[in-house]
Amino acid sequence: MARERLVLAYSGGLDTSVAIRWIQEKYDMDVIAMTVDVGHQGDLEGIQQRAKDIGAVDAVVSDAKDLFVKYFVWPALQGGAIYEGDYLLATALARPLQAWLLVETAEEFGATAVAHGCTGKGNDQVRFDVSIKALNPDLRIVAPVREWRLTRDEEIRWAEERGIPIPVTKESSYSVDQNLWGRSVEAGILEDPWAEPPDDVWEWTADPLTAPQEPAYVEIEFEQGIPVALDGERLDGVTLIERLSKLAGAHGVGRVDHIENRLVGIKSREVYEAPAGVVLYQAHRQLEKMVLSKEQARFKETVASEYASLVYNGQWFTSLHQDLAAFITSSQRHVTGAVRARLHKGTCRVVGRSAPDALYSHQLATYDTGDQFDHAAAEGFIALWGLPVRTQAERQQLHRPAERPRLTGSTSVE
Ligand code: ARG
C-alpha cells in the first residue's frame, strides 16, 4: 500500500530540514516539501534541491509574492492595521496565505496531512493551525518542532547521526522571519529588553547615524488606498515595495524595537525592519486625512485596531474579517492622490499631499483674501455648542484649579 502523504511548509532552514526526516521516521509518511515565496526566501532552487537530498519525495515552490501584496499587504495598509502601535504584521499577514497554499497543495497531491516548523511558544503555530482547520478540517496537522522538543544542539546531533546535510547558515543567535513586507528578529541578546539591539540585527536599514546627510524625497501615488506609482513611475505592487524598501532602508527608515504581547500570553521583545511599510503607512494615513471626514477617520481607527488584532491573532479566515474588510474597502473609494515624503537619517516625514476628492478646501481654510468661511455664523454655533457647558457651570458649581500663579509686574493695581 502506498504511504500516506504529507505536505510540509519548508523554509530550507535547520528545523524544517530535520523535520523531513523526522516525519518520515515518526509518522511513516512521504513528505512533499513546499516553499511559499513571499519574498526574501533565499535561493529557492537550492532550497528545493536540499529538500530532495534529505529525502522529500517532491519539492515545490509557489511564487505567491503578487498574491501576498494584493490580498494581504494592501488590505492591511488600507485598513491601517498596526499591532500595538508598532508592528506592521509582516509575518502575521503571510501565515494565512502560507496555510492556504499548504492546504491547496495537500489537496492537489492527495495528502492527508500538512506540517509546519513552528515552535510551541509563538503566534505562528496558532495562525497556521487555526487557518488550516478553517480551510480543511480533515487534514491532520503535524508540528515537528512543537512535538520533538529538542534543543538546538540535540537537533543538530539527531541530524548528524542520520547524515542529514545541515544547512550552512551563518551562525546566528537570532530567530529571523522575513518576507517582502518586513523582517522580524528575536532571541539572543534581544531577550534582554534593556540591551540596545546590536548592529548585526539590522539588515535592511542603514544606521541613521551613517545614512546620507542629504534627505531624499519620494512621491507616492495612491488609487483607492493602493500605492500605484513611485516618483511618477507606475509599478506593480511587488516592485514598488522592493524599490521603496531599498530607498527608505538606505536612509535608515523602518527600524522598530517592540515589546509585544503574544497571543500565547508571553511578552516578547522583537525587532522589526519594515522600511517600505513605514513610509507607505504614513503616506496613506496623511492622504486619508485629506479625504475622510472626521467621523469616518475616527471610526476607522477602531476598525484598524480590531483588524490588527484579528490579523495578529490568526483570525484571517473569519466572518468578522469579511465584515471589516468590506468597511475598509468602502472607506478607500476617495483615497486617491499623491503624497510627498522626506526621508532623512531614520525619519520619514510627509511634507506634501494632494487629492482630487479632497475635503480640504483652501477657500474655507485660508486666512488670506478669498476666505469664504462664514465668520458671523460662528457666534450662533458657539452659543449652542457651549450651552450644556454653561448649564453645568451654573447648576453644578464646576471647580476651578485650587491654585494659580501670582501675577507679577503690575504697578497700577493695588
Ligand atoms: N512576533 C511576530 C509575530 O508574531 C514575528 C514572529 C516570527 N519572528 C521570528 N523572528 N521568528 O508576528
What's the helix and strand layout?
Elements: E1 5-9, H1 14-27, E2 30-37, H2 44-54, E3 58-63, H3 65-79, H4 90-108, E4 113-115, H5 124-135, E5 140-142, H6 144-148, H7 152-161, E6 175-179, E7 182-186, E8 216-223, E9 226-230, E10 233-234, H8 237-250, E11 255-261, E12 267-273, H9 275-291, H10 294-312, H11 319-331, E13 337-344, E14 347-354, H12 362-365, H13 375-385, H14 387-396
The protein binds arginine.
Please tell me about this protein's structure.
This protein is of the alpha/beta class and 414 residues long. The chain has a domain at 5-161: HUPs (Rossmann fold), CATH 3.40.50.620. The protein is 42% helix and 19% strand. The chain has a five-stranded parallel sheet, with helices on both faces. It has a five-stranded antiparallel sheet with strand order 10-9-8-13-14. The chain has a four-stranded antiparallel sheet with strand order 6-7-12-11. Strand 11 (255-261) and strand 12 form a beta hairpin. 36% of the residues are buried. The structure holds arginine (ARG). Arginine (ARG) is lined by residues 91-92, 122-124, 175-177, 184-186, 260, 270.
